[in-house]
Amino acid sequence: MEFLLETARPLLAPAATLWGSPVTWAEIAAVVLSLAMVGCNIRVNPTGWPLAIAASLLYFLLFQDSRLYGEAALQLFFVAVACWGWWQWLRGTGDDGRALRVRRLGPGGRRRLLIAVLAAWPLLALALRHGTDSDVPWWDALPTVGSVAGQWLLGRKYVENWPTWLAVNLVSVGLFAFKALWLTAALYALFALLSLAGWRAWAARARSDG
Fold it and tell me: Are 15 and 25 in contact (CB under 8 A)?
């Protein structure tokens, strides 16, 4: 891990200063790729998945360097899930055997997903608290667990991925502001607004496809 960080050290060099804190080249590139990714997701364009892979690798470096270990580990999970999601959007099928389409998760599915998130949150927070030197284990764990749920919902084209991302993004704004990652905090504030746009677009598409 240390070798990887040292190799990528030039990407972690300051490119500018924002509100008194340095903004790295990795953060700038990750922001640009992430915005393009969300735009593709809203339009249900599978190009968003390879963009997600590239952005996640950059954010892994950034978060690892910032001691946000839950968020860093999440980025590696995102890379794996992006490969799966890319395949799902290109070749995946629903329960009826047809190609995946935008649809809603039933009440039972939403309830089970919420229970899973609430159960996993304290488990991850305690693991971060006792297994790392994280100074924000509970705050780091919540959006991490929520993002896992959001990625699964997105990969299976459920409308509920957007309200999930809305909640994750709002919590993340505070977390990244606390860590003085101002450009990323601003990005996640924009993500929150885009989540509302995506929610509206996918809800309309689910009605038309249904």
Answer: yes
